[in-house]
Amino acid sequence: MDIDSLSNYLLIIIFSLFTVIRITYYRRARKAGYKTVVSESRKYSIWLSVFICYEVFTFFSYINVRSLNYYPQLLTWADLDLPLGLRILGAVLALVGLALFVWIHRTLGDNLSATLRIKDNHTLVTVGPYALIRHPMYSAFYLLHIAVFFLTANWFIGVTWMIGLSLIILLRVSREEAMLLERFGEDYRTYMRRTGKFLPPISFSRTPDSGQL
Predict the structure, then answer these.
(1) Which CATH fold would you assign to the domain 3-193?
(2) Taking Cα atoms as reference points, which of 180, 102, 183, 199 lies closest to residue 142?
(3) How many CB atoms lie within 10 A of CB 112?
(4) Would you list the domain boundaries of the chain?
(5) Burial level of 162, CB count in 10 A (0-12/13-18/19+)?
(6) What is the DSSP letter of 135?
(7) Nearest Cα to Cα of residue 187 among 112, 128, 126, 138
(8) Which residues are CB-contacts of 116 (< 8 A; sequence separation ≥ 6)?
(9) DSSP characters for 25-93?
(10) Sign (positive/negative) of CA torsion 117, 120, 125, 128?
(11) Least confident range of 60-64, 85-89, 128-132
């Protein structure tokens, strides 16, 4: 089996596992029951839906081109000759990303929702991956998108998916933090000061003869 065929199988497995993870935990959160107190603007939900549809369309277009040889000119013009090491790294990053998704979803519990919303039973989660990062879900999405780029070895998919994801996050993250500040006030401000947005904060040790860095 060549590396492209193996990458295709891995992509299908990754997509399937990601879908199962999301559906399983969203269903659990919905069964818990809640009343929405604050929700995001409808336009953000529309942009997110459009982007998800685009990713699904390009993903299955790529799989069809590689597996069934339908319209090979559709995406093959953007193929890259990535070294085997990067393709393997893509598989490793995908596994790490999926494991992180499970950890995040388990940590959020009933707070999980498909759109930005504050529920009547909403709690401020500061444990697990949220102990150091305020938005580990977005970090996991970035990790998974990088993995898909390495596995597909297609710059068009890599660039457009990453740009789309960055735009969605740019539209959402400030609104999300504003909603949480409104809900939790000083508790969330304190939480923001000791955590990183997408990566753990870099801290420096303090010596007796030095000032605070």
Answers:
(1) Four Helix Bundle (Hemerythrin (Met), subunit A) (1.20.120)
(2) 199
(3) 20
(4) 3-193
(5) middle
(6) -
(7) 126
(8) 39, 40, 44, 172, 175, 176, 179
(9) HHHHHHHH---EEEE--HHHHHHHHHHHHHHHHHHHHHHHHHHH-SSGGGTGGGB----HHHHHHHHHH
(10) negative
(11) 60-64
Spatial distance between the Cα atoms of 26 and 114, rounded to a whole number of angstroms: 7
Strand blocks (E) in 97-191? 117-119
CB atoms within 10 A of CB 53: 10
Structure tokens at 125: 């989660």
Taking the C-alpha atoms of residue 87 and residue 148, their distance in angstroms, rounded to an integer, is 9
Cα pseudo-dihedral 186, 118, 200, 10, rounded to 10: 180
CA dihedral 14, 96, 27, 30 (to 10 degrees): -140
pTM of the model: 0.85
94-116 tens-digit pLDDT: 999 999 999 999 998 877 776 67
Contact status, residue 197 vs residue 134, Cβ threshold 8 Å: yes
Contact 204, 213 (CB under 8 A): yes
Q: Label residue 209 by pLDDT band (50, 70, 90).
A: very low
